[in-house]
Design a protein that fits this description.
Helices cover 33% and strands 32% of the residues. It has a four-stranded antiparallel sheet, with no helix packed on it. It is of the alpha+beta class and 241 residues long.
Length: 241
């Protein structure tokens, strides 16, 4: 049991305990003020407190539902994203890169998508501008991610240069995925054959949070030379995966 669950349990238990004490005191005072309480009188007292007990049960059920659906976010959508990346050499110094994105609704409610972003960034060979930033940077600043134009997002990510970009949009209600179901999207890119390694980023915005960029994101490194591809990523030219 987590700390929040323990707090919820203790608060609920305390509420029930206080209510029982109040009911008990009320019954005691009523009986002591009655000269000769009969079984029928006691039964009537019990019947009079029945609505209170029912209200307590409803309150507890409401608190428990709040705990499940609000605190545990059961009513929020949850997506799982997978990449299946492959490429073919087309000749004429060009390479065709295929990015198949699979989205699974791993939550308990309908998953609605309205917008997404797919980036392809070059990692190898290292471009001249990034190479210059690295060579000119102070070693400590380089280690701490504090080199301007080389790092972004508070120094957590390198600013790899984009080779391709897609930004799909769907009308409201046009794309919905039922719980447990999946949807597949394919995005094609044309690259120069000199590119060795790319970084593929897929992002879908959670429409539950309309004023923020909260959503689901997946980043995959893909080696077009077939040396260090992640498990499940296919290189048709070399047969490695």
């Amino acid at each position: 049991m987590t700390i929040n669950s323990q707090k919820f349990f203790l608060i609920t238990l305390g509420f029930i305990f206080c209510l029982v004490i109040i009911i008990g005191i009320s019954i005691f005072l009523f009986i002591t003020n009655s000269q000769s309480p009969t079984l029928s009188t006691i039964k009537d007292i019990g019947e009079s407190f029945k609505p209170i007990v029912e209200i307590v049960a409803i309150v507890i059920a409401g608190l428990w539902s709040y705990r499940i659906f609000i605190k545990n976010r059961v009513e929020y959508p949850f997506a799982e994203i997978k990449h299946n990346i492959s490429h073919w050499n087309l000749g004429e110094s060009k390479v065709y890169l295929s990015v198949i994105v699979t989205v699974k609704n791993a939550g308990n409610v309908l998953l609605k998508l309205e917008s997404g972003k797919i980036y392809v960034q070059q990692v190898r060979p290292l471009l001249d501008d990034l190479k210059g930033f690295i060579q000119d940077a102070d070693i400590q600043k380089l280690q701490e991610g504090e080199v301007d134009h080389l790092f972004h997002d508070r120094g957590s990510k390198i600013s790899w240069r984009e080779l391709g970009y897609r930004e799909p949009h769907w009308k409201e209600g046009e794309l919905s995925i039922e719980p447990g179901e999946t949807e597949e999207f394919q995005y094609d890119f044309m690259l120069d054959e000199s590119v060795q390694t790319v970084r593929v980023i897929t992002y879908f915005r959670n429409i539950k949070f309309k004023l923020t960029e909260i959503g689901w994101r997946l980043t995959t490194m893909y080696d077009l030379k077939g040396d260090h591809n992640e498990p499940g990523k296919r290189n048709p030219e070399t047969g490695s995966g």
